[in-house]
Each structure stands twice: as C-alpha cells, then as structure tokens.
Specification:
alpha+beta, Beta-Lactamase, Arc Repressor Mutant, subunit A, 247 residues, six-stranded antiparallel sheet, 8 strands
C-alpha cells in the first residue's frame, strides 16, 4: 500500500513539473521549475532528471534551461489529431441537419495562419454541388468563413499575415464579429453565395467557421433571413456540444 502511494505521489509531482510549462513558459531553469511546481529542490531535481532521461524534457545546452521534449510533442500531435477527428464527428450530424433543411452545401473550416482548411463537408443529394475536398486549403482573405475567422484575430496578427490589412477591412471584420455571421457573394466563385458563423471551443476560443453555400441566383432569393438564423443556431449547438458556454 505504501509503495502504491509513493508511486502515485511521484506521478503527481511529475505532472506538477510538466505543468510548470503552461501559460507560455517555453524554457525554464531548475529554480523556476522548483518555484512554479512548489516542490523541494531535491525532489524537483530528481523528477527533472527522470523526465529528461525519458525525453519528456530536454535541456538547452547554451543557457542550461529546460523545455518540453520530443515525447510531449508526439503526445500533443496525437491529441490534436484526435481532437480534429472528434470535432468532425460531433459537427457532422448538425451539418447534415442544416444541409437537409436547405438542400445546400455545408462546410466546416478550421484556420492555420492565413489559410482556412476544410475539415468536414456535406453536399446536397440534388442540385448544384460546390467542388471542394476535405483537407483543401483556401485563402482566409476570401469567402464568408474566411471573414468569420479573421473577425476573431487580433489586428497585429492580421497585419502580419495579410498584405492588404487596412482600416476599411478592420471595420468590416468588427461588424462581422458584432453581428455573429458573415456573408460572401461571388468572392471565391462568382456563381456562389455563402453564410458563415463561428464555432467555439470549450475555452471560448474560435475553433472554426461553418458555412452554408449555394448558387447565387437561388440562394439569395429564398429564405435568406431564415438561412442566416439557422446557420448561427447550428453553430451555437455545435459549440455547446463541444463544451462552450456563453457568458
């Protein structure tokens, strides 16, 4: 029993050491880890040595500070892969529901730097289909989903990734964020119109944007207000299922 308690305590202390690297602490000295973890120096030293031996921590030979090792990176990559698959699994029934209601294409995008990436998509069984494949990468600068994703980025970041970020675009994105949805008409494809709204993670960060798209000649004339309302509603439902709660 005592041995089991000792093992449990060692594991808990190891977690405390690793959690010292949260909140943007990319490199830490032995003293900093000791202070952040609240562990005695001898205990911290012993655990750090074990974690370093197992590649969970590595040491910068220039400044002698520690950083998260390759094992942690590999675990994180596996977690991100599952998270994306899980997000697709959760979102899919809602996307099908939206598609079936309006017989239009529904796409879920995530963002990477200046690109929006299609991670899930459902097409109508009849009517015009928009051509796009899962994993396809598009410019964030065009389209309703691109606007929606940009609306939640900081001005500094947008200035960094866009060559044409200006006051006019800043005000447009501010309006998009305030109203909670974005519309694009013929931006990526002249024959298409799209509506997009944000999907939130449990921590309140924007995970992606979901769009409903169809041919301009039909889409804009039929139930536009209802389509906007339904896209926002579906995104709220997906966000809530992912653990997000509005404040």
């Amino acid at each position: 029993m005592e041995e089991k308690l000792s093992i449990t305590k060692s594991i808990e202390r190891s977690f405390k050491v690793l959690e010292s690297f949260l909140n943007g602490n990319s490199e830490l000295s032995m003293t900093e880890i000791k202070e952040l973890s609240g562990l005695p120096q001898s205990t911290a030293h012993r655990i750090i040595a074990t974690l370093e031996e197992q590649d969970y921590l590595e040491r910068n030979l220039d400044n002698k500070k520690y950083y998260l090792g390759t094992k942690i990176i590999q675990l994180g990559a596996s977690g991100i892969k599952y998270y994306k698959l899980n997000t697709r699994r959760i979102a899919l029934p809602y996307m099908i529901k939206l598609r079936d209601k309006f017989s239009e294409s529904v796409t879920l995008f995530t963002v990477h730097e200046k690109y929006r990436i299609c991670i899930e998509r459902v097409e109508p069984e009849r009517g015009l289909r928009t051509v796009m494949s899962i994993g396809e990468k598009l410019s964030i600068r065009n389209g309703a989903s691109g606007k929606m994703l940009m609306a939640y980025m900081s001005d500094d970041y947008l200035e960094k990734i866009l060559d044409d970020f200006d006051e006019e675009l800043r005000l447009k994105l501010k309006k998009v964020k305030e109203q909670g949805y974005a519309i694009s008409i013929g931006e990526r494809d002249e024959s298409l119109i799209a509506i997009a709204a944000p999907v939130f993670e449990s921590n309140g960060e924007v995970l992606g944007a979901l769009s409903l798209a169809g041919p301009t000649d039909r889409f804009y004339k039929e139930k536009m207000e209802e389509k906007i309302s339904e896209v926002v509603k579906i995104c709220d439902e997906i966000s809530q299922t992912l653990g997000y709660r509005k404040k």
